């Protein structure tokens, strides 16, 4: 009788690691393909449509637009996850950022104090800082009271979303909007201009810049080193004198700040005013992207665009083949599950014994 | 428009909404008590709902429909169990994957049903004699469909299992300190598998209640985020089935306030404030029960952490 | 952190430096562009004379739906219209995107344009701004927005954008006639979506009709409104309907919500022996509540869609603002007396009447239908007072288009004040 035993690996070569990741994704394709065949859908055609966004310029443009907020959230989360702080609060931070941004815009429309060219840079800073404060709350709760951060950040998502929706239905409703639940339109100086000949707004630069900053922090600074130590082993960090509180609070400040900017990017870049439920779950997509891209900021840039393309692809699938958008969800979930399973093989060696 | 009628209507709506939440919460309590965090409740509920819809439409028998839902929820949670327990993966991500999988499967498989306007009859309510004549409580708690009564029973059953049986004791010790439980001879992996799978089955049944009791036709997104509320409820009820009973109805009650306030013309406090209340209170509960003074009633210590047997 | 001079490290650092330069340039560009104004909205009509291919040209129509086709209400009706257009126009190809939240409309439009759509229909008021922006961005694609007020024809959008709408208030008035005739408690409930003028005038028209027939029976009526603040909210609609029946004692429930939920609630009361009535909305929902269904307003978007895509096919596009009411888009003008069904190929028509409505009221409904078709009768004819007793429409006058489109007051009989 064979016996299967697992031994933790000491280390794994980059090639093997890559091969396992690749195999996971291919398995996801395979299983999805089988599901397609079983439900009477042409898998080749389905995949072609799903990935049409990468062969068609205007669809690619739209994919990038959707990738921007995903990217910002994922980058922030990558930093948090490196410190093993499992925040799922991206969605709430997006809404909170949106609330702050709208409040600034409305305040300036009323009082006209900030000169127009300065408005965006100031808003960027204020949104970042306020969202940071929102993000520090669960960090403090974890550091001081050992409260599970998954649960606190999850709860705060609801609170932020409810407050945002309340504001837009109530006090911030456009008085000239015929009673519809939306805020007054953001004036031109509060919008991100489009890159000419594309539909991509310039908040993409913020996303790219953030990626470089996160990369820099993680690989070149002492703080980044501390983050990694805390993430690897809390006792080691404590022994080395690293302040857990300082690390998680800073990490969450940056993470939440970036997600807040994602909210600003959605409102100022695409929609142009506050609306109820303005984020289609980008906070949660960001978690998946960060994780699938192995918390690597450079890979996250491309991963976000890939996911933006998937989202567009889902709509293409629906409009050209009549399939439900749920199909992309199934595909995403399979990718996740297989990648998660793949992680196991990266960490453990399998040994067959008689 | 007298207060009795208003309260009765509110309570009826509260019990309808709350029972769905209750079943899912009980299932997740079972899972989390063993130390496994399963964020896939929303997906399991939705998939359970679809399965029960199809089963009921095909067989006309609600018991089979409930079983189908339980099976659906259990299969999804089994995947989660395998990935989290045997493959020791990140449970947060795995749970999210299950949610997405469940929602995606329901949306795609349910589409032809939705488009063809297939309709089912909600199952009959059964009036409990005598008890249903009590003012307010009677019509709301004791004139409901059988699955709601099942949920009451599950509260007591779960409480009994957790606190009065050796299986429950083992389960709780696995959740608190798996290595200690292991050294005492308890099979940590098996216990967690059982807890996660059964917990998922209950989440699936909550989806069945949603369909069979209240929604005669299928449409996308029918669960409307209730699964996430259940995750919050588990914390709010401190992982205790009896508290879950009250917590679920509290959350259900808050959901009825918009309609009730409009009926009676109460416009002073915006209802959105009440909607944040459950989540605010949940955080409050989390903080209180996490601090060292309340060690006894805090969350299972090993929640979310994979267990590896040290050789 | 030692300074690494290995090849990997150098490549990394170089990439970082280059990236920094690119970012800096981008940020600079962004700062420079921040003060730019958008392209001006007023454009002269541009004839597309450049495309001179003769022969077959495919028209690809994209549809952006705010809800799922399975809602069996608003979105379903649009989809039925789309199928109708496809059946009449062999050169037409259609693509849909469902359940698009209002904030995502531009993305959905881009997806459709990316797949070759040359006309895009956006079917929710909340899509208006997004549609107008897309119309600006894509001058070679046509856009038609439903239930809004922006179009080239109205002068507040580009010429490649039209607006269209099917007006229901006349039908709600007819519903009101039926409601007033069957109510026993004298209390009517209305489950309303969003407090905009369109919904408000529906409510008001309903109340006006109900008062008319109720007065003939010697009854006074009261109407309670519950606002959902959403178009698609089956859960909220269920609770609101239940609350109206139980707490306010309503026995007829009208609604503006995108699903048959309120009718289903009425039906479940009928099954328990309590007489609660409701209506169809947008699509024929009588199967959802066979006992509770009184009548309802049905919309047939089909002829309107044929109209639009034909313009694109014949290259004869002109921006329009369509406001279809009773009688519009009917293939024949005069009543078909041998077959007195109030429907067929018009853009809006009434669902079959429940036999419980007394025959003299049914005759009244048929009469009013014909009168409104010929513009001989207008429900909003003065004297009409609002709920505070102030005269809003003077004796003998009819409400104008502006009064109707800006309606922000309730008629007497409505007990629930409008939300702020």
Give the structure's gist in a few sentences.
The complex is a heterotrimer of chains A (354), B (311) and C (420). Chain A is mostly helical and 354 residues long.
Write the layout of secondary structure elements.
The complex is a heterotrimer of chains A (354), B (311) and C (420).
Chain A: E1 3-8, H1 14-38, H2 43-50, H3 57-82, H4 90-111, H5 116-145, H6 149-169, H7 203-220, H8 222-232, H9 234-239, H10 244-271, H11 282-292, H12 297-321, H13 326-347, E2 348-353
Antiparallel strand pairs in A: 1-2
Helix pairs in contact in A: 1-2, 1-13, 3-7, 3-8, 3-10, 3-11, 3-12, 4-5, 4-6, 4-10, 4-11, 5-10, 7-8, 7-12, 8-10, 11-12, 12-13
Chain B: H1 3-33, H2 41-59, H3 62-86, H4 91-115, E1 126-127, H5 137-141, E2 143-144, H6 146-164, H7 166-176, H8 178-183, H9 188-214, H10 226-236, H11 241-264, H12 271-290
Antiparallel strand pairs in B: 1-2
Chain C: H1 7-33, E1 59-64, H2 74-88, E2 92-97, H3 105-114, E3 119-122, H4 128-137, E4 142-146, E5 161-166, H5 169-182, E6 187-192, H6 197-216, E7 222-227, H7 234-248, E8 252-255, H8 261-271, E9 277-282, E10 293-299, H9 302-313, E11 321-324, E12 348-350, H10 359-373, E13 384-385, E14 391-393, H11 401-405
Largest interface: A-C, 57 and 50 residues
DSSP helix fraction of chain B:
over 70%
How far apart lie the N and C ends of chain B? 70 Å
CATH topology of the largest domain in chain C: Rossmann fold
Task: Please name the CATH architecture of chain B.
Answer: Orthogonal Bundle
The major β-sheet of chain C equals: 6 strands, parallel
Q: What would the principal axes of the Cα set say about the shape of chain B?
A: globular
The number of distinct β-strands of chain B equals 2
What is the name of the CATH superfamily of the largest domain in chain C?
A: Response regulator
Q: Which series of helices and strands of chain B comes N to C? A: HHHHEHEHHHHHHH
What share of the residues of chain B does DSSP label as strand, in percent? under 5%
The level-1 CATH class of chain B:
Mainly Alpha
What is the H/E order of chain C?
HEHEHEHEEHEHEHEHEEHEEHEEH
Class by SSE composition of chain B: mainly alpha
Strand order of the largest sheet of chain C: 2-1-3-4-5-11
The largest sheet of chain B is: 2 strands, antiparallel
Output the radius of gyration of chain C.
26 Å
Low confidence ranges of chain B: none
- What's the CATH topology label of chain B? ABC transporter involved in vitamin B12 uptake, BtuC
> What would the average pLDDT of chain B be, to the nearest integer?
87
- How many separate domains make up the residues of chain B? 1
